Amino acid sequence: MQVRQAGEFAVIQQLRGIFDTKRTDLLVANGDDAAVWQPDGPVVATIDSVVAGVDWLEDRTPAAAIGHRAAAVNLSDLAAMGAHPRLLLLALELPGETDLADLLTAARGLKALADKHDAVVVGGDLGFSPGPARWTVTALGTLQGPPMRRDGVQPGDVIWLMGAVGQAALGLAALQWGDDQPALVAAHLWPQPLVQAGLRLRDAGVRAAIDVSDGLGLDAQRLAQASGVDLHLDLPRPVWVTPEIERWLIARGLDWREACAGGGDDYALLCSASVALDLRHLGAQPIGEARAGSGRVHLRIGGIAQAVQGFRHGD
Amino acid sequence: MQVRQAGEFAVIQQLRGIFDTKRTDLLVANGDDAAVWQPDGPVVATIDSVVAGVDWLEDRTPAAAIGHRAAAVNLSDLAAMGAHPRLLLLALELPGETDLADLLTAARGLKALADKHDAVVVGGDLGFSPGPARWTVTALGTLQGPPMRRDGVQPGDVIWLMGAVGQAALGLAALQWGDDQPALVAAHLWPQPLVQAGLRLRDAGVRAAIDVSDGLGLDAQRLAQASGVDLHLDLPRPVWVTPEIERWLIARGLDWREACAGGGDDYALLCSASVALDLRHLGAQPIGEARAGSGRVHLRIGGIAQAVQGFRHGD
Fold first, then answer.
1. Which of A83, A89, A150 has the CB atom closest to B47's CB atom?
2. What is the pTM of this model?
3. Domains of chain A (ranges plus CATH)?
4. Assembly ipTM
């Protein structure tokens, strides 16, 4: 059945059933004009949208991956601050012909990722309108210590990468072509926000971080510019570039270095810490250093210098 | 210039300039992965979108009224809870051909209403995509006392209306036809969320309220169903129905009673209080009572019974 046929109110009722929660920090949960929440620390707030045809391929994306993505992009922003996720608010704009069962599957995909990271969905908005489906999520988290910030990098700091970059953009290409690259496709379809890693990095004393959503080069540049330093980065060949994947890349005329430098949607964390901190036991990889400067990024990947240009959504 | 020509990052820079804030409860303001905020009480959170062609007439709406509306619909939800507005987050999805100057005017319209109610815009998201322009706002407020809730109506309570209903729907009609009805058109274009009134009602002891965004009948029904009571409402002829407006309504075949019962987007507050409370000094008008029941609404307007059916956005 199409959501238009079901009607706005019936769809809202079904979504509420999926997102129903009894969490005790919620004084008023779903179904009122607004939710009321007692936070357990300073509040971290972010908003981000994902749009059909821009952020996912409409005809090749499992419904659950759409809701997953809507949550992931926002949870990753909380991860980059070192925050505990708590609440998600969801505004959905859908074409009236959206299949109701697909929508509910997508909502369950969102809930599954929220559950994994202790977040609940409270409140929302639903509209039917022409144009592509758009999922807008606000994520609210709390801090139990100082946030990691973009402007906290000091000259002399070591730059660390947590998580992998480059896979998601290549996974999108593989999905478009129908190529059998399950690891890459999974990195595109099911990005994992590094929430626990963000908390551990913050607890270990990291004071500067950014999530790598628009490509390592561009997000490194944001970090450098916010902090007023230059970054000198040298990322070795990633372990995910197996001989098999490299053969596929060559056959398709693709370059893993370019994907690492400019591919988007990986949701790794790029962070900075004084040389006294060793973050390897947390799974982070040292990839360079900050020097006194003016916001420039010098990026080498696998030993070869790369132009710094990021993936810009919607450009 | 079109926003697509200006580029996403240049547009974001200009929007940040408009929304720049130094408020001391913001530990991290715009420009990071997320904002960090120290709330001064339990947090009230809501999200709502307004969409071109659905919520406003694309060719007859001043740009500033678009941003105003995006803030107003959310601030009204905070008003209905009795909350102090604090933060707004904005996710914008725009056609690439949107005029940049119009966008910035719209953003200033949003900021003007936010300023009026002590809210600041922190963080946001911008995308260009096909389909109608869509402004999604999350409003965060704080409570200095118990919230007004939809499920707080008790049998025997008096039902009060704060603000006017019916004008906005007729103003939309007047605007569509190009008719000279400035008071009605202003009610449609520049809805005023009753934030101060909501705070005063809460302070006076009101424990149940809803904002009337989808028509008096439908929102009364929501209040009745959430509280498990019947509502018997009898709204007298509103003062805004002047003889001049009535002549126009007759000429256009419109009915002010229907507009009061089912017209949307007025953002009045419908609330409930024990008979011991007199709210007239706050500007509220007693329009009925709650009785033991099962969520039904009996609605008379100007002495004539009205079917309860609301305006449903996007249906």
1. A89
2. 0.94
3. 3-142 (3.30.1330.10), 150-306 (3.90.650.10)
4. 0.93
